[in-house]
Write a structure and sequence with these properties.
- With 132 residues, this protein is an all-alpha fold.
- 70% of the residues lie in helices and 0% in strands.
Length: 132
């Protein structure tokens, strides 16, 4: 019987030695995913179940952001979603972009965009003033 050569289609090779970054990134995806489910479900219930969507306006958000609790809640949702999405997209890019130069350019673009959204979102949450 002729042996069939098995082709492994995955491009990732496990790191030999070095840091445990990929292991920690894997754990982070599981933990942040759990927290994101809880935070997003809480956000959905507060914004769409407990409150009528017709009442969601500037005044509602301004009253909500008067307390540090809600700003922290929204900042955690922002931070975890950006980090979780960036890490997931980093893994997808590493798996699917074979050319090392294109992969590095795509990763730099991803990191730049993610950082810009994080800084902008954090700025809005920290610098928000009710009276304009």
């Amino acid at each position: 019987m002729k042996s069939v050569k098995r082709t492994d289609w995955g491009r990732r090779t496990p790191p030999i030695g070095g840091s445990n970054f990929e292991l920690y990134a894997w754990f982070f995806m599981r933990i942040s995913g759990l927290f994101l489910v809880l935070l997003a479900a809480g956000h959905m219930f507060i914004m769409h179940v407990f409150n009528d969507t017709l009442n969601l306006d500037y005044e509602f958000v301004a009253a909500r952001w008067d307390t540090p609790y809600w700003r922290t809640f929204d900042w955690l949702l922002l931070t975890l979603s950006i980090l979780h999405g960036t890490n997931g997209l980093r893994i997808v890019m590493h798996d699917n972009i074979a050319n090392k130069t294109f992969r590095q350019l795509a990763l730099y673009g991803l990191y730049f965009t993610s950082t810009a959204f994080f800084v902008l979102g954090t700025y809005v949450l920290v610098a928000f003033v009710r009276e304009v």
